[in-house]
Amino acid sequence: MAEIGETLREARMRRRIDMTEVEAATKIRAKYLRALENEEWDLLPGPTFVKTFLRTYAEYLELDPRLLVEEYRQRFERPSTQDLTPFGPGMSGQRRRRQRPRRSAGPFLVVLLGIVVLGAALYLLGVVWGDSSDNETPKASATATATATATATPAKSSKAKKKKKAVPARAALRLTAGATRVYVCVVDATGKAVVNGDYLEPGKSTKTLRSQRFRMNFGNGDIRMRVGAKSYKAADLGKPIGYEVRPGKKPTRLSEAARIKLCAT
């Protein structure tokens, strides 16, 4: 099997993904990602972090995380100290020969006698006071039970906590031209032009595109961007304009220099 770090590096380079993009998507610091690719395990916080980072990085690159983690365990993870500590010769025999200390029966007899005396005293008290307390006991017991139940049962909140929606790993993008013809160029996270300088006729839409990031160059602002379930109108400045789209975020304006690098209008 190929080296772990080499496998990660080749997958990232093959997809033309910069290390800063991996850091932003996985929330793993760039120095730890480089340590994984260089197999510099001593630079990472510990074996648990190594396996967690390795699993997250592999899933991001669409590799099989189980194979890489298992490879790391077999080649680099040390066995626990308990597994390495041998038993000394004859230790099991010495343990068998040790006699258990004899326990005296005196304390147990004292405790048992105390329980018998206490039980007898409680029985006598119940016989003497039983008649006078029979009518009151059910009411007091019911009241105490109701109070304990009301106290033990926490009040339920009328408003349920809203679950946070998980941010998708990829953005779904669909572009629709307005009343005018629009020049469109769209580049995905790998640097591939998925819409390579085409003209979108009025009212027409592209197919739904999916990637971890999109950078776009429009000939004018008469276009609408649908990102996931939300729709955004481009700023109509009367000149070409560029945007960047990431999963779970609003489109952001590209600088003029970044826009020109994508496609020339």
From TrEMBL:
GO terms, molecular function: DNA binding
Transmembrane portions of the chain: 105-129
Swiss-Prot/TrEMBL keywords: Membrane, Transmembrane, Transmembrane helix
Any single Pfam family the record assigns to this protein: HTH_25
UniProt feature, compositional bias: Low complexity: 138-157
Location of region: Disordered: 79-101, 136-165
PANTHER family, per database record: CYTOSKELETON PROTEIN RODZ, PTHR34475
Protein name: Helix-turn-helix domain-containing protein
Species in which this protein is naturally found: Solirubrobacter ginsenosidimutans
